């Protein structure tokens, strides 16, 4: 089967495999003490490939006939990835696949490899009958439909803000399994407005914290500040920019997913979902860890 | 360093995993972590990543070759390829979008809820991470190595149609 969105497919597969391996110790231990060999992971990869294929098909179906979106613009033709030659494409290329991976990981974290009643790993037919790929695809589109646009004047570090938003959403579903509580119900991107709104508020605060900080050059260079507001992402035209875009963006994603893991939607004492002001302390910590990492990135 | 972008991905995956489920901020405002608190974590992650990059190289050596999908991430050893133009192709662009994020996420899973990994003596050494790095590179290598579109059974990693 041809894949239309290769990088989303790849990251969905890796993310699912990572989630199924999370805290299972399967990565770390081997009771036979035999070194883990590539072939040992074949069953894991087979079921994850089937899962990712279903994700691709669902995204195709959801976006079929729609106006161009940040997702459809990722490919110039089915299966042909666009070069990140513009600010919009650079932003999308760095954050969308990473978020797909993190959401897929979140959906499977600590759940092991799904098996049917006979104990066999899920096949394509099982995934088709499952609500999981549908829920993840819809959750991802809820994110993708609401990413910060390049014309946004308040957010400077767009790839970082977008991945922070998506990764926060990924953390909110981790261990909660409320992504597909109503088995059989067809979810839509509109099912997740609270997740989207509070994640976007969090990402806005992270960006504001970064703007107020003194980031290392590799972070600053991601944005064209000279052009004034609205700022735009600098397409990667040098090895250093390339390295930074595809190192720093997933790094922000990893940190942001982690601090939301298992928390669901953060709410204040009144039960109201967090708004931007509620995220000041959390964003400060995230930014601090991110900047510590960014200062230690290997450019060569 | 060869494949600095993979090294970076391994570092950030380790950091994300160590931070997973900790929630140091919201749960206890009196224990806000400061920038200095993160330096030891970065040191640990860098140590792990160094071992991870070695393990990846060994994995592909054992598999017989390093696929172009991976090697094309660099124009020369240690020099990251530029995917937005020049010699870049859609396959290279896909690689940049997929491979570093994938390694990061797999590494993250191997550290989930392990905030302070160390050996029995409390030491953080490259050797301590060897088995873990090998396991991560095993899954990573398998996925990357089987990327050819005409593989049967269906390819596990798609470059393009």
Q: Which regions of chain A contain 5 or more consecutive residues with pLDDT less than 50?
A: 25-33
The major β-sheet of chain B equals: 2 strands, antiparallel
Average predicted confidence as pLDDT of chain B: 77
**What does the main sheet of chain A amount to?**
2 strands, antiparallel
Features:
heterodimer, A: 300 residues, mainly alpha, two-stranded antiparallel ribbon, two-stranded antiparallel sheet, 10 helices, 4 strands, 3% strand, B: 161 residues, 2 strands, 54% helix, globular
Describe the structure.
Chain A has helices at residues 6-21, 42-63, 87-108, 124-129, 132-144, 158-173, 193-212, 217-220, 239-260, 280-294; strands spanning 75-77, 80-81, 223-224, 232-233. With 300 residues, chain A is mainly α. Chain A has one domain (6-294). In chain A, the strands form two sheets. In chain A, strands 1-2 form a two-stranded antiparallel sheet. Chain A has a two-stranded antiparallel ribbon with strand order 3-4. In chain A, a hairpin with a 2-residue loop joins strand 1 (75-77) and strand 2. In chain A, helix 3 (87-108) packs parallel to helix 6, helix 3 (87-108) runs parallel beside helix 9 and helix 6 packs parallel to helix 9 (239-260). The longest helix of chain A is centred in the N-terminal third of the chain and has 22 residues, at 42-63. Chain A is globular and about 60 Å long. Mean pLDDT of chain A is 86; it is low at 25-33. Chain B is mainly α and 161 residues long. Chain B has one domain (4-145). Chain B is 54% helix and 3% strand. Chain B contains five helices and two strands, in the order H-H-H-E-E-H-H. A two-stranded antiparallel sheet of chain B has the order 1-2. In chain B, helix 1 (4-19) packs across helix 2 (35-63). Chain B starts with a helix and ends in a 16-residue tail after the last helix. Residues 24-30 and 148-157 of chain B have low confidence and may be disordered.
């Amino acid at each position: 089967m041809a894949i239309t969105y290769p990088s989303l497919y790849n990251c969905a597969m890796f993310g699912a495999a990572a989630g199924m391996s999370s805290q299972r110790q399967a990565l770390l231990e081997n009771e036979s003490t035999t070194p883990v060999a590539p072939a040992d992971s074949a069953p894991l990869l087979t079921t994850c490939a089937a899962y990712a294929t279903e994700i691709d098909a669902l995204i195709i179906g959801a976006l079929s006939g729609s106006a161009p979106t940040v997702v459809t613009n990722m490919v110039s033709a089915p299966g042909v990835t666009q070069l990140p030659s513009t600010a919009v494409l650079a932003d999308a290329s760095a954050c969308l696949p990473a978020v797909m991976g993190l959401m897929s990981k979140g959906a499977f974290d600590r759940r092991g490899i799904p098996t049917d009643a006979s104990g066999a790993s899920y096949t394509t037919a099982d995934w088709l009958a499952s609500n999981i790929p549908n829920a993840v695809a819809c959750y991802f589109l809820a994110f993708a439909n609401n990413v910060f646009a390049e014309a946004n004047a308040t957010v400077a570090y767009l790839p970082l803000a977008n991945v922070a938003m998506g990764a926060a959403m990924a953390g909110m579903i981790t261990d909660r399994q409320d992504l597909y509580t109503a088995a059989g119900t067809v979810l839509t991107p509109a099912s997740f407005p609270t997740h989207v709104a509070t994640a976007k508020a969090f990402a806005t605060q992270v960006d504001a914290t970064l703007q107020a900080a003194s980031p290392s050059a590799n972070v600053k260079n991601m944005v064209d500040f000279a052009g004034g507001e609205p700022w735009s992402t600098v397409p990667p035209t040098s090895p250093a920019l390339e390295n930074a875009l595809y190192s720093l963006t997933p790094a922000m994603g990893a940190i942001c997913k982690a601090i939301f893991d298992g928390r669901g939607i953060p709410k204040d004492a009144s039960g109201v979902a967090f708004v931007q002001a509620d995220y000041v302390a959390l964003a400060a910590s995230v930014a601090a860890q991110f900047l510590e990492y960014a200062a230690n990135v290997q450019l060569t | 360093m060869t494949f600095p972008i993979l090294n970076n991905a391994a570092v950030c995956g380790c950091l994300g995993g160590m931070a997973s489920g900790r929630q140091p901020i919201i749960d206890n405002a009196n224990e806000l972590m400061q920038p200095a608190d993160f330096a030891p974590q970065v040191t640990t992650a860098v140590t792990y990543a160094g071992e991870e990059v070695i393990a990846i190289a060994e994995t592909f050596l054992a598999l017989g070759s390093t696929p172009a999908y991976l090697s094309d991430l660099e124009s020369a050893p240690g020099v990251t390829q530029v995917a937005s133009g020049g010699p870049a192709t859609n396959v290279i662009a896909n690689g940049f979008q997929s491979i570093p994020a994938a390694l990061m996420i797999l590494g993250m899973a191997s550290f989930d809820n392990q905030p302070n990994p160390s050996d029995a003596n409390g030491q953080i050494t490259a050797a301590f991470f060897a088995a873990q790095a090998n396991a991560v590179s095993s899954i990573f290598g398998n996925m990357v190595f089987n990327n050819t579109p005409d593989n049967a059974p269906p390819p596990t990693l798609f470059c393009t149609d």
